């Protein structure tokens, strides 16, 4: 699909077949568009929420970029040290704190 060698804040459009387009930047897919049987293009964000239906793929791409543009400055184009981290939101526990709580496996394994 995408061959990422480095993070880039620039938008990349990847055409998959003739009826499917992915939009990505900074190693993150921010949306996609697919062509329906009637020829119209439906655009969806990165969580598959519909953005709209469009006559041309360029209009679907523009809508995807518009929906992503506000978050782009903080999640894609920002320096690495100020990007939000998903693990911080999950409340992960360091491995050292969990090592004493690992259950023993039954001997019958």
Feature tags:
five-stranded antiparallel beta sheet; 109 residues; elongated; alpha+beta; 3 helices; single chain
Please give a structural write-up.
- The chain has 109 residues and is of the alpha+beta class.
- It has a domain at 12-84.
- Helix content is 26%, strand content 27%.
- It contains three helices and five strands; from the N terminus they run βββββααα.
- It has a five-stranded antiparallel sheet, covered by helices on one side.
- The radius of gyration is 20 Å and the shape is elongated.
Cα separation of the termini: 40 Å
Helix content: 25-40%
Whole-angstrom Rg: 20 Å
Secondary-structure element sequence? EEEEEHHH
Q: Flag low-confidence runs.
A: none
Which structural class best describes the helix and strand composition? alpha+beta
On the 0-100 scale, what is the average pLDDT?
76
- How many runs of DSSP E, i.e. beta strands? 5
Strand order of the largest sheet: 1-2-3-4-5
How are the SSEs placed, and which strands pair?
Layout: E1 12-16, E2 20-25, E3 28-35, E4 41-45, E5 50-54, H1 57-75, H2 86-90, H3 95-98
Antiparallel strand pairs: 1-2, 2-3, 3-4, 4-5
Region (Disordered): 88-109
Task: Give me a quick take on this structure.
This protein is α+β, with helices and mostly antiparallel strands and 109 residues long. Helices cover 26% and strands 27% of the residues. The chain starts with 11 loop residues before the first strand and ends in an 11-residue tail after the last helix.
């Amino acid at each position: 699909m995408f061959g990422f060698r480095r993070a880039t804040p620039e938008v990349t459009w990847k055409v998959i077949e003739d009826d499917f387009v992915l939009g990505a930047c900074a190693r993150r897919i921010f949306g996609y568009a697919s062509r329906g049987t009637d020829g119209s293009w439906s655009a969806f964000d990165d969580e598959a929420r519909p953005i709209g239906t469009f006559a041309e793929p360029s209009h679907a791409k523009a809508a995807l970029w518009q929906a992503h543009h506000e978050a782009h400055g903080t999640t894609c184009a920002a320096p690495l040290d100020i990007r939000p981290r998903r693990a911080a939101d999950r409340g992960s526990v360091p491995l050292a704190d969990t090592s004493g709580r690992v259950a023993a496996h039954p001997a019958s394994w």
